[in-house]
Amino acid sequence: MALDIFSVRILRLVNSASFRFALLHTLVFVLSVLAIGWVAKVTLTSTLESQARDRVATEATSLLAEYNRTGLSGLRSAIAERSSGKRRLLYAIVDAQQRAVFGDRYLAPFARATTAGVQLLRQQQDATDNILVAVRPLGDSLRLVVADNLDSVEDIEDVIANGLVVALVLAVAFGLGAGLFLSRSILHRVDNITRTAEAITSGDLSQRIALAGSGDDFDRLAATLNTMLDRISDLLENLRQVSNDIAHDLRTPLAHLRQQLENAKLHAVSTSDYRQAVTNAIEDADALLDTFSALLRIAQVEAGTQRSSFCSVDLSDVMQTVAEAYALDIEDGGRSLQTDIPTSVAVAGDRELLTQLFANLLENALRHTPPGTHIAMRLRDNHAMAIAEVCDDGPGIPPHEHAHVFRRFYRLERSRTTPGNGLGLSLVGAVAALHHASIELLDNKPGLTVQIRFPRRTP
Per-residue b/e over 31-68, b at no fewer than 16 CB within 10 Å? Predict the structure, then answer.
């Protein structure tokens, strides 16, 4: 069983893309080492062979000059002296019958070589070894042979070849070892993402991809996927909430509408009764249509498609326009409105949506505060962001309710008897989120302050 598990793991490792990449990297590395070694070998042996050629040619020229100056006896003395030293060159004097009359008899067969320059010849007893030979004619049919058997060059070639073999073995071993380690590490990170995705697919939307804390590409990918999962989770939760809210909050007006129509059918006895019933039904139907229109409007805002048409909007002018539009209604309701709005504070956004945002806030203050309430609209600019506030000194909202009032259809217990559908602040929250603005409910002591912070530049 353990062997089967190990075999499966090895198979997954070998079949992984990271391992194949590591194997390809190892192959390229080995070929690079091989090419470098071959170039080094060719360059070094060519240089050493060229130096040996120059040395043999110089030695042959020097000895020929000695022969011309001192004769055959002086040449023999010079060869004897040089043969007894540390020089690694070979010397011989060969007669017309290819016999070595002096020096190394081993060189006699090479006396037949041309007398021009230096030749690279095969050694007869070992066809794989080479020898450099320089032949110079002397008097009385004699020839001077100077040679270098290139043993040192061949030894260096063997050292380079052996070193290259060792380097290739090490390159393969280290390359595959690094590939296995890298593949296992990457495969572990991929498995972590896969397990999280499988858990989410199975319905556990609370799962998130664990970050290693290294800040590498996998961490950035995991953070992005977690953000996406948070957004999806929020949307699904929002969808569940909307479904539940529609099922509960719209059931009552629909039941009321049906009851009115049934009462008209059973109890109406005159045309005026039917007319009144139809009028009431139309009013209820309009309220339902308004609710669905508000839901559709919120859905469109949350989709974020309008962000592409954002432009610079004079927030000061928007707030001043809304304040002027609601001033008369606020005064008629026995309330007062004060404004503190500096000019020319601009943000990136949609003017129509921003107008709807502040209109909803004023309508909310007008609807849920008693006569005599003081309402204020303020705007501040601190360069980094524009801070808008709508305040009142009415009954306010309890702090434990602040997190709930932006939900669709959510209404405070004391507000259930007032007109409305509980979507006004939901739209405010959606518009604020679309503009990357943060919204916060604060205690105005007494009353409520709705504070919205707009970034001067849209992220």
Answer: eebeeebeeebeeebeebbeebbebbbebbeebbebbe
Work out the pLDDT band at 445, boundaries 50, 70, 90.
confident
Count of structural domains, the chain: 1
User: Quick check: 459 pLDDT over 50?
Assistant: no
Residue range 142-175, pLDDT digits in tens: 888 888 877 777 777 778 888 888 888 887 777 7
Q: For the CA atoms of 30, 31, 32, 35, what is the dihedral angle to 10 degrees?
A: 130
Closest CA to 185 of 207, 216, 208: 216
d(CA 22, CA 16) in angstroms, rounded, equals 10
CA dihedral (108, 111, 112, 114) in degrees, to 10, reads 160
Model confidence pLDDT, tens digit, residues 72-95 = 888 888 888 887 766 678 888 888
Lookup: tokens for 166: 């060792």
Cis peptide bond N-terminal to 137, omega within 30: no
Q: How far apart are CA 2 and CA 6, in angstroms?
A: 6
Structural domain contains residue 178? no
Question: Would 26 be classed as within a structural domain?
Answer: no
CATH number of the domain bearing residue 317? 3.30.565.10
Model-wide pTM > 0.70: no
d(CA 294, CA 302): 12
